[in-house]
Each structure stands twice: as structure tokens, then as C-alpha cells.
Write a structure and sequence with these properties.
about 90 residues, two-stranded parallel sheet, 5 helices, 2 strands, about 5% strand
Length: about 90
């Protein structure tokens, strides 16, 4: 998430919840950790395509602030607390 916030192109293994943050080809590149050649291919792809690197970086930053920023988390938490307070007062 930190690299997304900084607007860096991301290459990540497709494990656990990573796929929820990174959409392959949109805001980063994902590879299967059981297939090391995919990781190499991702690095080669970025190295050879500066335009792709720039668009992934920009999209990563935008994705972060739309989905994962502190502001987003605070707003979500306030909604939960408001709902609890409304339930408690009813």
C-alpha cells in the first residue's frame, strides 16, 4: 500500500489479499509465486515499456487514495460508529 500511495509501479505475487489491491495490468503486475519466470517477465515488461510503467504508477496512486487512504478508513469507521450509536439509542 505504501508504494501505491507513493505512485510507484508495483510487481507483487498473487497471494492472500494482494489481488484485492492490485489489478493485473491496471495498477500493477501480479505473478504466480510458484512460477518464477512470471516474475522475471513482469520485470522485463516494465523495463521495456516506460509508458506501461508510468500508467501503472499513476493508477496505483489513484487506486490507493480511492480505496485505502486514511481518510477512506476514517470515513468507514465513523459510519460504523454512527450505526452503533443509532442502534444503541433506539
Amino acid at each position: 500500500a505504501e508504494y501505491m500511495a507513493l505512485g510507484k509501479p508495483i510487481i507483487a505475487s498473487d497471494v492472500s489479499g494482494v489481488g484485492e489491491m492490485i489489478q493485473h495490468g491496471d495498477n500493477g503486475l501480479l505473478y504466480d509465486p510458484d512460477i518464477p519466470d512470471q516474475l522475471v517477465a513482469c520485470f522485463e515488461k516494465l523495463y521495456n515499456d516506460e509508458s506501461l510503467m508510468s500508467s501503472l504508477a499513476l493508477n496505483a496512486r489513484e487506486s490507493y487514495y480511492q480505496k485505502f487512504s486514511k481518510e477512506k478508513h476514517i470515513k468507514s469507521a465513523v459510519k460504523v460508529f454512527d450505526a452503533i450509536e443509532s442502534w444503541r439509542n433506539s
